[in-house]
Amino acid sequence: MRSGMLKTIASAAISLAATGVLLLAVAGTAPVAAQTSDLVSKQAFRVCADPANLPMSDRSGAGFENKIAELMASRLELPLEYSWFPMATGFIRKTLQANACDVVIGYAQGDELVLNTNHYYTSAYVLIVPSSGPLAGVTTLADPLLEDKRIGVIAGTPPATHVARNGLMSKAKGYHLMVDRRYEDPADDMLADLKSGAIDAAILWGPIGAPLVKASHPDLKVTPLLSEPTPPKLFYRITMGVRQGEKVWERKLNSLIRRNQSEINAILAEAGVPLMNDMGTGPLELPK
Questions:
Q1: Which domains does the chain have, with CATH numbers?
Q2: Staple partner for 271: which of 19, 64, 250, 281, CB 3.0–4.6 Å?
Q3: pTM for the complete prediction?
Q4: How many CB atoms lie within 10 A of CB 235?
Q5: What is the DSSP letter of 43?
Q6: Running DSSP on this structure, what letter comes out for residue 10?
Q7: In this predicted model, what pLDDT tens digit does every residue of 201-233 receive, in sequence order?
Q8: What are the tens digits of pLDDT across the range 112-153?
Q9: Which among 159, 171, 172, 165 is positioned nearest to 204, based on CA atoms?
Q10: Do 198 and 189 form a contact (C-beta atoms < 8 A)?
């Protein structure tokens, strides 16, 4: 599904290294819950983020997750501080679990490595094709028009299962999932291959692919993949991740998300993130 960012939604796509046996053993006790809550800084809003993961985050603060972090920090009336680490294997262990920060802004709902807040948006994988080409009307990977087409897909992600099931893998081009985007950029590489004609269609996680298209590829069309008839699903609810046991901090962030949802939606929409309703059946209707 993605480059390093796809780790953010990887609860359904990949298995992360086993973590925190000690946390799992003690998380249910009241004293430990109190101690873990005390780890949250009262002096700054400390965020774990990838330094080179646009359109989501980077050191310059240009990503939409950077802007959401800025919003949360301002509402808490705290300075924003980052702990930078590539969004790849070991990210949570070396940042959040190491107490280098207190929150990951974007994380898939249900991943056991973190305690999830309430989700603040839902999005989906997308099919990207030339807007004036013969595939512009395709809405599902089962469409006969995709037969014999060269499709770009991130290896090991949910769409790859559908590509294989529909007999499209023989001509598919795979791109790496777990990368350090300071040195390798599968999403940009895939879109460059699409523009050059090396592939006929690209499948990317929507919050990566759609903003890149909006920013630099006006001649490409983005279609959320919401019509696949069989699992795995291709839409995911995105939360903020905190350390296991920090229920007080989780509830505080839930309150911030609820009170500032319209501002969060505006940031995401401005970036070009495809926002879906909670059930993944269609686009989210935003107030005008």
A1: 4-121+238-271 (3.40.190.10), 123-224 (3.40.190.10)
A2: 64
A3: 0.85
A4: 22
A5: S
A6: T
A7: 999 999 999 999 999 999 999 999 999 989 999
A8: 889 999 999 999 999 999 999 999 999 999 999 999 999 999
A9: 159
A10: no
